[in-house]
Design goal:
By secondary structure, the protein is an alpha/beta fold. The chain has 3 domains: about 450 residues, Thiolase/Chalcone synthase (Peroxisomal Thiolase, Chain A, domain 1); about 90 residues, Alpha-Beta Plaits; about 130 residues, Malonyl-Coenzyme A Acyl Carrier Protein, domain 2. It contains 30 helices and 24 strands. The strands form 6 sheets. Strands 5-4-6-7-1-8-15-14-9-10-12 form an 11-stranded mixed sheet, sandwiched between helices. The protein has a 4-stranded antiparallel sheet with strand order 22-23-21-24, with helices on both faces. The N terminus and C terminus are likely disordered.
Length: about 800
């Protein structure tokens, strides 16, 4: 008998108490809701200061007048005139971005189309990229209740599109996400009516904990495109003629339908910490059950709802009485059948009559449906997103439309309170997380519940997932200096889009964003470089200050808008676009002498401790030589023009090489490595280091001795050598060398391009050539910077054996097979 009575308890299958399981981190979200709430931040603005965003049913969806009748009992009609619609037209879709032809796009359910865009935005919010997730075990769970577009297409079978099956199948709303983004984890569409998307979150949590997936995307979608469900819900007396969801109010007359699409990206807590993700909130536990048999299939069971809440708390290792949440996001539809039953379930779960509740604290209860309507298949994700935003801002948003408490709710209201104004989050003890519960119920009886919290290491790292490696205190993997990203002041802002018009719009938005006083230019640049997908059309802006970067952005924008045919940025043929499978390759080009300037290392040495340590290590390597330099790398890199010795070959070569070594190492810390390198002149040393041919210590010593012996190079009469860059081609250069007064003393050292060569020879011959060519405007560089030590002339060849001898004594460098000059 005891066993039989247990089986009759709706909570029987939830009574097994499990050890607490690893929390799931919410690392990002995207959304499209009524009232212009096209992002989580805009949704919060609406929730914090709510206003009536309901609208008359628009003619663009269907003819509302043709299906309206004031009597809700009238057959084939609805007495509803207002609902909650998106401000953006759901017919608009960037099909090119998603590699979909216009013809196919027309056949795709707008819920699929808009959800593609919403999930991409959620992915960006998570700091994830197309490239990083491609081919990964990322799972997709989408809650979906309505199929208006499918039903509309099915009415005209003679004109079915070729793409109707793939465009309107419910399975495809999740499968298309996996297809476009190339995600290999489970992909599933869930329909449990209005609890669909919270059930999707539950399945995503299970998938992550079981190891089926490493990242999960849980989403919901709901668009109101036809009158069908309005008519059906009206006939069941479920829908509000007044167009308002009046949760727990005496005058509640049903729920108001609303549109919405939202997605969240999830990881296990340990994985999110390892990856350095921003944790927006934690899903402590989820659960779902069914009402079973009730007085009617659409009548909810308060006993089953209360049992689910208690079971979910027990599975989280929490006591629903002593560990109750500070806020409860109720299903809160505003129906006379549902509201009293849910209020009873909440009261039963957290304030059971057999317990004494002396603290007097009220449990705050609310519902997002009073502000954006009942988004049906998206309602669960909407409730989670509201709770996370409220915890982040430590403010509980007000409910709308509560004027007089429903008398049927009153018996359960003793310990509950619905705030009608924005309320500070109730205080919690130190090191305790903020906690909220979310309900979501399907009208067929499927109930879902979730517990969300703020992340508190002292609470959430206690478990097998946290004890092993103390992840919350662990420095990022392979990151010698976790602060290094903040040390950059001149990292370029790299913006990319799928088209030039989209890039122009993006630059406009980032100009507006970057003007904010709370926006760090370095943090913004880091986010753009590391946490945004690389798309084909790119442009970058750089500068030492925010003002200069903003000015560069405005100048570029003015040029594009002010002149026909002027392009924004450049289009890469090698960018990894979605579905292309093409991996970008990085080429490193290392310049030789002539590009240096006084104090060229000052800004980066002073702003980056990592770079400063690299220079210090190189200086120590040179200091160990028996003929060590009598000057300091650091001091010379910081020296102003008045005292700089960069014009001396003995210094300029190791100084330039030191800068190149430092930049290679910094890029390596940032995750950038070269696939191919090319070096010119002394730049071959930096290129060889980047290619891993020898160590940083060997590279700086080679550069030092090359500079020393270049400085010592002289002819039999003691003459010094020099070089000069000239603005004509190779043939003209040969003629000039053979016909001028410098014949025999001047030669072509390098053919740089069809219109540029480098001449080398005795110092006096180069000076004579300079005077002759300067008047003709043929010097490639300004006259004050056009003459260099003769590093590529005959005198340098004379010193080559001496350089090789010095290098061979003080380092163990051996040329690797397949290495050629210039590689």
């Amino acid at each position: 008998m005891a066993r039989q009575s247990l089986r009759n308890d709706p909570g029987f299958f939830f009574m097994i108490i499990h050890a607490p399981r690893e929390p799931i981190a919410i690392i990002g979200a995207g959304c499209r809701f009524p009232g212009g709430a096209s992002s989580p931040s805009k949704l919060w603005d609406l929730l914090r200061e709510p206003r009536d965003v309901s609208k008359r049913n628009p003619d663009s969806r269907f003819d509302p007048a043709g299906f309206y009748h004031p009597n809700g009992e009238h057959h084939g009609a609805s007495n509803v005139t207002k609902s909650y619609f998106l401000e953006d037209d759901p017919r608009l879709f960037d099909s090119v971005f998603f590699n979909i032809t216009p013809r196919e796009a027309e056949a795709i359910d707008p819920q699929q189309r808009v959800l593609l865009e919403t999930v991409y935005e959620a992915m960006e919010s998570s700091g994830l990229t197309l490239q990083a997730l491609r081919g990964s075990q990322t799972s997709v769970y989408v809650g979906l209740m309505t199929s208006d577009y499918t039903d509309t297409q099915a009415r005209d079978p003679e004109n079915f599109s070729q793409y109707m099956a793939t465009g309107t199948s419910r399975a495809l709303i999740s499968n298309r996400l996996s297809y476009f983004f190339d995600w290999k984890g489970p992909s599933m569409t869930i329909d449990t009516a209005c609890s669909s998307s919270l059930t999707a979150i539950h399945l995503a949590v299970q998938s992550l904990r079981s190891g089926e997936s490493t990242v999960a995307c849980a989403a919901g979608a709901n668009l109101l495109l036809t009158p069908d469900l309005f008519i059906a819900a009206t006939s069941l007396h479920m829908i509000s003629p007044s167009g308002k969801s009046q949760m727990w109010d005496e005058g509640a007359d049903g729920y108001a339908r609303g549109e919405g699409l939202s997605a969240v990206f999830l990881k296990t807590l340990s994985q999110a910490l390892r990856d350095g993700d921003r944790i927006e909130g934690l899903i402590r536990e989820t659960g779902f059950n069914s009402d079973g048999g009730t007085q009617g299939i659409k009548l909810p069971s308060p006993e089953a709802q209360a049992a689910l809440i208690r079971a979910t708390y027990r599975n989280a290792g929490l006591d629903p009485v002593s560990d109750r949440p500070q806020y409860f996001a109720a299903h809160g539809t505003g129906t006379q059948a549902g509201d009293p039953r849910e209020a009873s379930a909440i009261s039963q779960a957290f304030f059971p009559p057999d317990k004494i509740h002396e603290d007097g604290a009220k449990l705050l209860v609310g519902s997002i449906k009073t502000i954006i309507g009942y988004t049906e298949g998206c309602a669960g994700v909407a409730g989670v997103l509201k709770a996370v935003l409220a915890m982040r801002n430590r403010t509980i948003p007000p409910n709308q439309h509560l004027l007089n408490l429903n008398s049927s709710v009153a018996p359960s209201y003793k310990h509950l309170l619905v705030p009608t104004t924005a309320t500070p989050w109730p205080p919690v003890p130190a090191n305790h997380p903020l906690r909220a519960s979310i309900n979501s119920f399907g009208f067929g009886g499927t109930n879902a519940h979730a517990i969300v919290e703020t992340y508190e290491p002292t609470v959430h790292d206690i478990g097998p997932w946290g004890i092993k490696s103390k992840l919350s205190n662990q420095d990022p993997v392979d990151e010698p200096d976790a602060q290094s990203h903040r040390d950059f002041t001149s990292v370029p802002l790299v913006l990319s889009a799928n088209s030039e018009s989209a890039l122009v719009a993006m630059v406009e938005r980032y100009i507006e964003l970057a003007q904010g006083d709370d926006i760090s230019l370095g943090a913004l640049a880091h986010t753009l470089c590391n946490h945004r997908s690389t798309l084909p059309q790119k442009v970058f802006f750089s500068g030492p200050t925010k003002g200069e970067v903003l000015q560069a952005m405005r100048t570029t924008l003015d040029k594009v808008k002010g002149a026909q045919g002027v392009l924004m940025g450049s289009r890469s043929l090698f960018t990894s676009e979605a579905g292309s499978g093409t991996k970008s390759r990085v080429l490193g080009v290392f310049t030789g002498q002539g590009a240096q300037w006084p104090a060229m290392g000052k800004a980066i040495i002073q702003s980056s401790p990592v770079f400063g340590r690299i220079i210090q290590d190189l200086e120590e390597s040179l200091g160990q030589l028996p003929d060590a330099p009598g000057w300091s790398l650091r001091e010379e890199l910081l020296a102003p023009a008045a005292s700089s010795r960069l014009g001396e070959a003995a210094l300029s070569q190791p100084l330039c090489t030191a800068i190149q070594i430092g930049l290679v190492d910094l890029l390596k810390h940032a995750g950038v490595s070269f696939d191919v390198v090319v070096g010119h002149s002394s730049g071959e040393i930096g290129a060889a280091y980047a290619a891993g041919r020898f160590s940083a210590s060997d590279a700086i010593r080679i550069a030092y001795y090359r500079g020393v012996h270049a400085q010592l190079a002289q002819g039999s009469r003691g003459q010094k050598g020099a070089m000069i860059a000239v603005g004509f081609g190779f043939k003209e250069a040969l003629q000039f060398c053979n016909s001028s007064s410098t014949k025999g003393r001047l030669a072509v050292a390098a053919s740089n391009s069809p219109g540029s060569v480098t001449l080398s020879g005795d110092q006096d011959a180069v000076d004579e050539a300079k005077q002759e060519l300067d008047g003709k405007g043929l010097l490639s560089l300004p006259s004050h910077a056009s003459v260099w030590r003769g590093l590529h002339g005959l005198l340098a060849v004379v010193q080559h054996p001496n350089t090789r001898t010095s290098v061979s004594v003080y380092l163990d460098f051996k040329r690797q097979p397949g290495t050629r000059d210039g590689e």
